[in-house]
From TrEMBL:
Keyword DNA repair: no
Domain FAD/NAD(P)-binding: residue ranges: 53-369
The name this protein goes by in its record: Ferroptosis suppressor protein 1
Family: Belongs to the FAD-dependent oxidoreductase family.
Annotated Gly residues bias: 1-10
Regions annotated as coiled coil: none
Region (Disordered): 1-40
Compositionally biased region (Polar residues): 31-40
Length: 443
């Protein structure tokens, strides 16, 4: 993990001349052109921020943390995301069952970052010309690049589509309607059962399990605004089955006592668990859509009749933006190999943070924020010729929220119970932290 000092200076290449990389393309509103006359690659980096223009690809937890720090330090940057608003996906599953909640989970980028935000899908990186290529032909020049494209996964846990805020919120409100079937007499829980599927996770990480658990938890009915009001009523009318291919629930890095408690909480909530069973007819199943009858089959011959199937089988690294540029810098799951300073191996001015960085730790929003701190500090340090900061993965902290009033977790290797998890996470799911980072007030 040998690191490189000196930011872009380490490349031994010349900056794109003004206009280069934008040839024949529209210049983005508010976009500053880096001043190439002051910034010769292979020489010392100028501290003049006029020579610096950071492009951040991906406005997830890592991207918004990096953008707000650059903004606070007056360092020129452009945040690019295919969506027009940040998605607080940590609360995506509550938004799927609680009407009116989704609007708290999408936060406009342009209100916070104004002309420093550009909506667009990145389809490639031109390493020779130091530009980020957008669908539609536009190219954004960079002196430093932060790749924060995160991961994709099945809806409703993730929402990775080119979309506007209104449509994204509506997708979750529609999901709430699938979960609750409304008749002419008023809102009732029409589903007799729902199935959350866990088929093993792509990353070998926590998300598959977390998603399943959150789905099961959410469908279990601790939805305070529910027309039926109490979780007890919901549980009576609504059977949730969680199918999981492994014998134990939750992440393998968690303490056995935490994993056991997860199981017990779900059982107490009335969730039916089918463990060590794998769904065998997944391709035929309608996902996230209420139906009068759906038959789910497992490899052990079990059949479950249900009305709604929610897929929670893990996430995949979203490498489409950088795959062709960094083909030989990719781990087998598509994550970017980075050194201890979070620089993509071999590139002193390109950083990878969050889920798309190949770091041996669970993929978590919290970690993405810590990575952003390091990447921004190192961009500043490289400009000022200071030593770079190394990233050191810390002890595992994991809070599993199981409804608004329940949960379990571990902090630095120690078991923490319901009260702590409830106070620290379950009520708010860290939504207020994201609104604070975006310096906006929640609706
Ligand atoms: C249901 C669920 C619950 C979770 N709960 C927790 C939790 O409680 N605590 C926790 O710490 N972590 C949790 N996580 C994990 C956490 O959400 C992720 O680790 C976190 O989102 C990673 O942040 P990121 O910035 O790397 O990427 P992401 O949040 O995935 O964001 C990536 C962004 O990049 C954009 N993007 C991708 N490709 C392109 C492209 N080509 N062009 C333009 N834009 C692009 C996407 O639109 C997206 O906005 C949960 C995840 C899920 C799915």
């Amino acid at each position: 993990m040998g690191g490189t000092r000196g930011g872009a200076a380490g490349l031994g290449q010349r900056w794109a001349r003004p206009g280069q990389g934008l040839r024949g393309r529209r210049k983005t509103r508010g976009q500053r052109q880096p001043n190439s006359t002051q910034f010769e690659m292979g020489s010392q980096v100028s501290v003049d921020t006029g020579a610096v223009h950071v492009v951040i690809v991906g406005g997830g937890f890592g991207g918004i943390a990096a953008a707000s720090q650059l903004q606070a330090q007056n360092i020129p940057f452009m945040l690019v995301d295919m969506k027009d608003s940040f998605h607080h996906n940590v609360a995506a599953l509550r938004a799927s069952v609680e009407s009116g909640f989704a609007k708290k989970t999408f936060i406009s980028y342009s209100v916070t970052f104004r002309d420093n935000f550009r909506q667009g899908k990145v389809i490639g990186i031109d390493l020779k010309n130091h530009t980020v290529l957008l669908q539609g032909g536009e190219a954004l020049p960079f002196s430093h690049l932060i790749l924060a494209t995160g991961s994709t996964g099945p809806f409703p846990g993730k929402f990775n589509e080119v979309s506007c805020q209104e449509a994204a919120i509506q997708a979750y409100e529609d999901m709430v309607k699938q979960v609750r079937h409304t008749d002419g007499c008023g809102a009732v829980w029409a589903g007799q059962s729902a199935v959350a599927l866990e088929q093993g996770d792509y990353l070998g990480g926590p998300h598959g399990c977390q998603n399943s658990l959150r789905s099961a938890e959410s469908l279990g009915g601790e939805t305070q605004d529910s027309p039926l009001n109490t979780c007890v009523v919901c549980l009576c009318l609504f059977q949730v089955t969680l199918i999981h291919s492994k014998v134990q629930l939750a992440d393998k890095e968690l303490l056995p006592s935490v994993r056991q408690e997860v199981k017990e909480i779900l059982l107490r909530k009335g969730v039916q668990l089918l463990l060590s069973e794998r769904v065998s007819n997944l391709e035929e199943l309608p996902l996230s859509e209420f139906r009068d009858y759906i038959k789910v089959q497992t490899d052990k011959g079990t059949e479950v009749a249900t009305n709604l199937v929610i897929l929670c089988n893990g996430i995949k690294i979203n490498s489409s933006a950088y795959h062709s540029a960094f083909e030989n810098r990719l781990a087998s799951n598509g994550a970017l190999k980075v050194n201890e300073f979070l620089q993509v191996e071999g590139y002193s001015n390109i950083y990878a943070i969050g889920d798309c960085a190949d770091i041996k730790e669970p993929k978590m929003a919290y970690h993405a924020g810590l990575h952003a701190n390091i990447a921004v500090a190192n961009i500043v340090n490289s400009m000022k010729q200071r030593p770079l900061k190394a990233y050191k993965p810390g002890a595992l902290t994991f809070l599993l929220s199981l409804g608004r009033n329940d949960g379990v977790g571990q902090i630095s290797g120690y078991y923490v119970g319901r009260l702590m998890v409830r106070l620290a996470k379950s009520r708010d799911l860290f939504i207020s932290t994201s609104w604070k980072t975006m310096r906006q007030s929640p609706p």
